[in-house]
Design brief:
The chain is of the alpha+beta class. It has 4 helices and 10 strands; from the N terminus they run E-H-H-E-E-E-H-E-H-E-E-E-E-E.
Length: about 160
């Protein structure tokens, strides 16, 4: 999931789909996103391990407890981490070891195929075209999250 995703469901649809609640103020803040670029560091809906039935807004880009600046995700690129390395990557290992996991409801995500200097987007979506879940790690510093990714499979080989 190369830093680009979609969440086009309304907050009420997401809450109903996951039997979750949310704070009233979130309805004013949240808006569905046809295209979200992780490098914009916008807040998105998450379900955390400690509050699995409550939608919360977390910024994309994990800010670990040792970060000295709120711009840490931009400096260290903590938008994602290969899950196999999450126990050894400095920014992610504390959240991974202490079970600070969250799920990011998404209606789809983008992968990019590079052909020479040209990039072609591939939009990956579930057949049901409803909210899927993407596993994340989160930090309690400024409510931030970073994605766990996997080394791409043979299924995605043609678009990687």
């Amino acid at each position: 999931m190369c830093y680009h995703r979609q969440q086009r469901e309304t907050i009420d649809d997401v809450a109903n789909y996951y039997s979750a609640s949310y704070a009233a103020v979130m309805a004013e803040i949240y808006s569905a996103q046809f295209y979200e670029n992780g490098f914009d560091y916008k807040p998105g809906l998450v379900l955390t391990a400690d509050k699995p039935r409550e939608l919360q807004l977390y910024k994309w880009g994990l800010i670990p407890h040792f970060a000295t600046t709120k711009d840490y995700p931009k400096i260290a690129n903590t938008l994602n981490c290969v899950s196999e390395n999450s126990y050894t990557t400095n920014a992610f290992k504390d959240s991974t070891k202490t079970g600070k996991r969250c799920l990011l409801p998404s209606t789809g995500f983008y992968e990019w195929r590079h052909v020479g200097k040209v990039k072609y987007p591939y939009f990956i979506v579930r057949e049901q075209k409803r909210c899927g879940l993407v596993q994340n790690s989160y930090g309690l510093v400024q409510n931030s999250h970073g994605l766990y990714t996997k080394l791409f499979s043979a299924h995605f080989y043609s678009c990687h």
